């Protein structure tokens, strides 16, 4: 297939395209996103290191790889974002909240960045339009607290399949709590997508883990073939702490903050640290915040930008994951519209009236692979991923 001239121009000498390589041999198309937040340089550095070493794979590479830079202006300044979080804009397109609808109103710098990223992604999709089933996207991040490496994924069977190849914890369904992410946008387009969190922002180990993850991803996606010893070496670099079970987790509480300047996390919390209910966690407007549930602390906020104060997660039973895999492949979805309080609103979506359907609504829809969000206090929107 011939690529359009306009798309070719986008993919040539584009400052946002840090690295691209296409082999003569057909194979997967791997698209990497780095630097979505300007204070997270580890992924950027890791991509540049791999690109420099990549000659050793020439002749043994299949398909294509592209590495796209995220928030260029924020990366230049070393800040999370300039006006608004670039990784919270991606579900605004074609809605009433789309910035393009705001005639005359000032638009955040990140809106322009998102449009440019979108153009590059669309050009890559157009270039490989005859190979769309072999796309894999990955978004590389770091956190404001110390952490082992972990993977975030929207809970689809396709995402689970590739994510479990990595020896790190897997956080399911994060899109229900942190909305507007690039991962959700990509999944809504119908492609596999993973988020990789390497550790603390400025930790050299985060760069090493990001680089190891990229080697493993290139292998597991099918672009290269690592030897057994190289696989073990790279896996050991990202392998989880001994006190953190390498399994699936789900979010059971999400503390949102209105203004990060008024929020102060108590020092000493790391990702996956076990906590008991009522443990003091933070202060907001001078008021003490205690853990509403027992579980493990996740992504505690130790920076003065962002609205996600902290999350609490718990392990997901492997038994329920197997059951959900079976049910998602079955025809049980067809009976959902007949359940009390459930109304079908689209080909893949339902509204649930909580005044009628009161018990285990989220659990049932999660089991069947639906994303569940609140429309209001008494209504849930359930969309099949």
- CATH class value of the largest domain: Alpha Beta
Question: What does the radius of gyration come to?
Answer: 21 Å
Count of individual beta strands: 18
The helical percent reads 25-40%
Order of helices and strands: HEEHEHHEEHEHEHHEEEEEEEHEEHEE
CATH architecture of the largest domain: 3-Layer(aba) Sandwich
Number of helices: 10
| Class from secondary-structure proportions | alpha/beta
Principal-axes geometry comes out as: globular
Roughly how many Å apart are the termini? 30 Å
Count of domain modules = 3
Mean pLDDT, all residues: 89
The CATH topology of the largest domain corresponds to Aminopeptidase
The largest sheet, given as strand count, sense and whether it forms a barrel, is: 11 strands, mixed
Low-confidence runs of at least 5 consecutive residues: none
Strand content: 25-35%
What does this structure look like?
- With 385 residues, the protein is of the alpha/beta class.
- It has an 11-stranded mixed sheet with strand order 1-3-2-4-7-5-6-8-14-13-10, with helices on both faces. Strands 15-16-18-17 form a 4-stranded antiparallel sheet, covered by helices on one side.
- The protein has 3 domains: 5-238, Zn peptidases (Aminopeptidase, 3-Layer(aba) Sandwich), CATH 3.40.630.10; 249-315, OB fold (Dihydrolipoamide Acetyltransferase, E2P) (Beta Barrel); 327-384, no CATH class.
- It contains 10 helices and 18 strands.
- Helices cover 28% and strands 27% of the residues.
């Amino acid at each position: 297939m011939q690529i359009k001239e306009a798309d070719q121009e986008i993919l040539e000498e584009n400052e946002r395209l840090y690295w691209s390589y296409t082999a003569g041999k057909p194979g997967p198309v791997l698209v990497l996103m780095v630097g979505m937040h300007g204070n997270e340089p580890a992924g950027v550095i890791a991509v540049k290191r791999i690109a420099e070493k990549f000659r050793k794979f020439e002749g043994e590479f299949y398909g294509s790889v592209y590495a796209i830079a995220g928030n260029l202006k924020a990366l230049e300044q070393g800040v999370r974002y300039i006006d608004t979080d670039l990784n919270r804009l991606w579900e605004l397109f074609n809605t009433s909240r789309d910035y393009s609808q705001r005639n005359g109103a000032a638009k955040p710098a990140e809106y322009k960045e998102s449009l440019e990223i979108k153009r590059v992604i669309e050009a890559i999709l157009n270039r490989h339009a005859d190979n769309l089933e072999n796309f894999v996207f990955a978004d590389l991040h770091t956190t404001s607290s110390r952490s082992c490496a972990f993977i975030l994924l929207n809970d689809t069977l396709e995402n689970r399949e590739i994510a479990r190849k990595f020896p790190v914890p897997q956080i399911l369904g994060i899109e229900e709590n942190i909305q507007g992410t690039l991962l959700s946008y990509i999944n809504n387009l119908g492609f596999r997508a993973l988020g990789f969190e390497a550790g603390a922002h400025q930790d050299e180990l985060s760069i090493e883990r990001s680089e190891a993850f990229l080697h493993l991803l290139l292998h597991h996606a099918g672009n290269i073939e690592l030897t057994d010893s190289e696989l073990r070496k790279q896996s050991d670099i990202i392998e989880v702490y001994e006190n953190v079970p390498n399994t699936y987790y789900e979010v059971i509480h999400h503390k949102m903050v209105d203004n990060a300047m008024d929020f102060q996390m108590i020092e000493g919390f790391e990702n996956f640290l076990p906590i008991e209910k009522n443990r003091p966690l933070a202060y907001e407007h001078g008021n003490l915040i205690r853990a509403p549930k027992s579980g493990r602390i996740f992504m505690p906020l130790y920076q003065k930008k962002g609205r996600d104060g902290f999350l609490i997660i718990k392990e997901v039973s492997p038994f329920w994951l197997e059951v959900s895999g079976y049910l998602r492949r079955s025809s049980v979805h067809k009976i959902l519209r007949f359940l009390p309080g459930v109304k079908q609103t689209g080909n893949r979506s339902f509204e649930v009236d909580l005044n009628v359907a009161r018990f285990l609504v989220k659990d049932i829809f999660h089991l069947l692979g639906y994303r569940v969000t609140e429309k209001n206090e008494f209504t849930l929107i359930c969309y099949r991923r």
